[in-house]
Please model this.
Amino acid sequence: MTGIILPEIPGSLRQARLLYSVDAAQLAGLEAGGIVLPESLANAMLKRQVEFAAGRFCAREALQQLGCESRATLAIGQDRVPLWPAGYLGSISHGDGLAIAVVTTTKAWRGVGIDIERILTIEAAEPLVEHLMTAAELAIGNAAGLSLAHWLSLVFSAKESLFKALYPLVGRYFDFLDAEVCELQKQQSCITLRLVTTLSPSCVKGSLYCVRYSCFSNNVATLCLL
Model:
């Protein structure tokens, strides 16, 4: 993958990225570097093992940039979210041979979510529409001149980033349709999402969130900061 372009990341965050290949040698190298697979992934497919290890490697590198001394592999918490050390929070994404982690402190931000997705084919996108967006959201993409596959991939990624950013405040899984796109600003590369249901006392119906995005190498990347 070349020409990786991510949304602008403020100086209060640190990022680390790794281009990886799905093979035994890649996994062995990450394990030799101190990344430990949890027992729950002992019998998982190689792809899942490599993606986990690559993501945790990036998380460890970004944490160290912020001064975190621990080199322990981040454990998997409830709803499969990473368990960050006290005082830190972050987000991990991986796919299409790229892993990335962004990390910050709980003093600087309340939540952070990053997501990278390969743009779906039209055949893969069409069956997902009703599960990911409403007719009104679909119309926003159409008005902007975006193809269904590109728009669906972008909305999917934006809602994934929102989920990751809100999880520390909500503490549970919520659905793609609990948030809706209410505005697309192409010049600012920003999607505004609005909650259509109350998720927690601090995440109430009508709350608005800006999700920055970028596109590169047939991929979309999104970043949500709270």
Q: What stands out?
A: DSSP finds six helices and eight strands in the chain. The mean pLDDT is 94. The chain has two domains: 14-109, 115-225.
